[in-house]
Amino acid sequence: MNLKALLLLQPGFMIRSGILVLCILSTLLVGYLHTLTGMAFEFHVFFILPVLVVSWFNGKRLGYGVAVLAALDWFIADRLLAGDQADVVPLIFNTAMRLAIFILGAWVIGGVRHVLLRESRIAREDALTQLPNRREFHERGLQAFAQAQRQGASFTAVFIDLDRFKEVNDTLGHDIGDALLTVVARIIREQVRISDIPGRLGGDEFALLLPNMGAQAASGYVEKLHNRLLAAMRENGWQVTFSIGVASYKVAPQDFDLLLKQADTLMYEVKNNGRDRVQQQEF
User: Fold this and answer.
1) Which of 33, 215, 235, 247 has the most CB atoms within 10 Å of its CB?
2) CB burial of residue 259 (10 Å; 0-12, 13-18, 19+)
3) What is the pLDDT of residues 123-149, one digit of tens each?
4) 204 annotated active-site
């Protein structure tokens, strides 16, 4: 795993919860060790590290919570070390300054993480439809394809092109065209399984990769999708239909790009022979 992938790693809920618990426990442990070692040792770094880790993986708000805990823990440790004769005012002032530093650290780290994730998402996501763009579609598709090859599983690729979409843009305007593409993307998202990979390849062209789905299952799947898309067009009064090419393999082949080309070729055969239908072939 390279440094960029490590920085953008997004662990699941259970792992994030584990990180939060460990950071809280480590904060309490640092406070305890501080009371054992006394004032001679500097503990700034050990108190702020859990704050930064939580802010990075769990967000700024939880980072603020750990910041408050760390500052309070440090205050209690200093109070115990100083004894009853200590002046409380300097302790309170120092605690307030530490809290400000911790919160600033949480704000900066959480903000940087948010910007990095947003930029990464923008680079891989189609801005209009929020579907994976061509690059992300291809990368995720390669991963799923490699897994299907290892398992000897079936695999299907689907290419979808919108018929007469340009006429909608020319007659009704680009705002309506964008709304139409958004509806198409929504229906695709509602149709897909967790393992499926949808994508907008550009313009009015969409695609789907269906791991572990052979020709027979893909036929019903794509027919249902086609009917739902047509129903949405009729509902909105848009004179748009869909040319769909479906390439299926009983066992995933050796060449991923060839699979995509076969589905694309089938889709163009539909467009050149009357449009608005599904053409499927099992290879």
Assistant:
1) 247
2) buried
3) 778 889 999 999 999 999 999 999 999
4) yes
What counts of helices (H) and strands (E) characterise the chain? Answer: 10, 5
Task: Quote the pTM value.
Answer: 0.67
Q: Where are the beta strands (DSSP E) in the chain?
A: 155-163, 197-202, 205-211, 241-249, 277-282
**Tokens of residue 34, six digits:** 């501080």
> Which of 196, 204, 255, 264 is labelled catalytic?
204
Tokens of 231: 């129903």
Whether residue 241 contacts residue 230, with contact meaning beta carbons closer than 8 Å, is answered with yes
d(CA 66, CA 48): 9
What is the per-residue pLDDT across 36-64, written as a single tens digit (0 to 9) for each? Answer: 887 667 777 888 999 999 999 999 999 99
First to last CA, the chain: 35
- What gap in Å lies between CA 185 and CA 229, rounded to an integer? 10
Q: Which residues contact 182 (CB under 8 A, 6 or more apart)?
A: 128, 129
Per DSSP, the residues of 192-208 read --TT-EEEEEETTEEEE
Residues 6+ apart with CB under 8 A from 134: 199, 200, 201, 202
Q: Does residue 1 have a pLDDT over 60?
A: no
By CB neighbour count within 10 A (0-12 exposed, 13-18 middle, 19+ buried), where does 278 fall?
buried
